[in-house]
Design a protein that fits this description.
Number of strands: 10
Structural class: alpha/beta
CATH class of the largest domain: Alpha Beta
CATH architecture of the largest domain: 3-Layer(aba) Sandwich
Strand content: 5-15%
Number of helices: 10
Number of domains: 2
CATH topology of the largest domain: Rossmann fold
Shape: globular
CATH superfamily of the largest domain: Nitrogenase molybdenum iron protein domain
Radius of gyration: 20 Å
Distance between the termini: 61 Å
Length: about 300
Amino acid sequence: MHWKKAPAVAILLLFFAVLPANAELRVAASIRPLHSLVSAVMKGAGTPDLIIDNLNSPHSSGLKPSRAGILAKADVIFWIGSDLETFLEKPVKTIGANAYSVVLGRLDGLTRFVQRRAGENGNVIADVKSAADPHIWLSPINAAIMADKISIVLSQADPENQKLYMANATAVKLRLKKLNQEIDAILQPVKNQPFVVYHDAYQYFENRFGLQSIGSLTDASSSRPGARRLSVIKKEIAKYSKICVFSEPQSVRQAKKVLGDETRTRLAVLDLFGGEFEPGPELYFQTLRSIAHAVFACLSGK
């Protein structure tokens, strides 16, 4: 059989047929928000391992030796894909060669965008390149699609717990629907307020909730801003008496350095990965609520 041409379900059945009967299913997930979704779907049946346990961006992370064992023991590995966790591509193929790798960033049905760059007028526009923006989990609708896929894969891997996985996924999707409505209500009063981001990672959140980003200091791959890009954004900032600039925890120092003594900005911190929360089923919901409240606080001047 040529696996590349086989239906996905057939591949799963073939792959997991080699697992010993009644063996404990070992599941690994790459980043905190994704680990949270997997944890929620697995609740009552097991707990996944978290691969990236530090609080740095996965763009710049590396695989710690202490975490390599997780890949070696895993039966299933959930990750966004090489557009985000670039350093995981080779370890998943080598150290995790015996695991079933699930690249959630390429699922059918997801809302997906390409990376953006600063336009001549300072507004963010689609990049002429086709590189994907990998921050897909920042849309609760995308998260629901991922939860479905997670439940399907786990059900094939562990048929004895299929009803539990499916029921958990249904509950997660209902919570995600409510979360989407909750965040929409939180942000409704500030949807027309312009802002700038340091790292262009919030496109999915902005699009889902109708927010008005006017530019970013770095692109979605988190590279440092060039002189031309910085000049464009600073000219845009100068049009406002006070404008919010959103940075991630690991970029605050660099953002302050780049902005200098810019008095027209108000710097606020958004954490895409939920570093302040305990890993587990609640982290995804806590993370998106935290982002929503931080955005509202800054844009409303509170």
